[in-house]
Q: What sequence folds into this?
């Protein structure tokens, strides 16, 4: 790996890792919510989980590709992760609470990366 490639990967790696972790946690939470008895009360939460899954995936891809738009995508990712955390925090299930925590961590890291 060239020095330039290593430098951009070093810059992005922590954020890529948390985006991937958040994407997986949101997938798990979405699946679990689909099987909860109050599934009809979770529609907005599940829609936000889907958005979060997509933006985390896109953010990781943009950072891995060293895109000139990675910072803007990560800023949007932070906004969506915060929204997802807010939705998940409304439910007391462990999967929702864990997801909310990971979403907050991802939002923080994405904002840090976007401002770097």
A:
């Amino acid at each position: 790996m060239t020095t330039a490639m290593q430098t951009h990967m070093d810059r992005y790696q922590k954020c890529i890792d948390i985006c991937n972790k958040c994407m997986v946690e949101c997938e798990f939470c979405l699946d679990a919510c689909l099987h909860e008895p109050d599934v009809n009360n979770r529609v907005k939460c599940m829609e936000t989980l889907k958005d979060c899954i997509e933006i985390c995936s896109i953010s990781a891809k943009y950072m891995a590709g060293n895109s000139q738009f990675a910072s803007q995508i990560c800023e949007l990712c932070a906004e969506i992760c915060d929204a997802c955390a807010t939705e998940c925090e409304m439910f007391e299930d462990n999967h929702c609470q864990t997801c909310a925590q990971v979403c907050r961590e991802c939002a923080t890291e994405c904002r840090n990366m976007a401002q770097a």
Q: What stands out?
A: The domain at 3-115 is CATH 1.20.1270.360 (Substrate Binding Domain Of Dnak; Chain:A; Domain 2). The chain has one domain: 3-115. The chain has a mean pLDDT of 93. The radius of gyration is 15 Å.
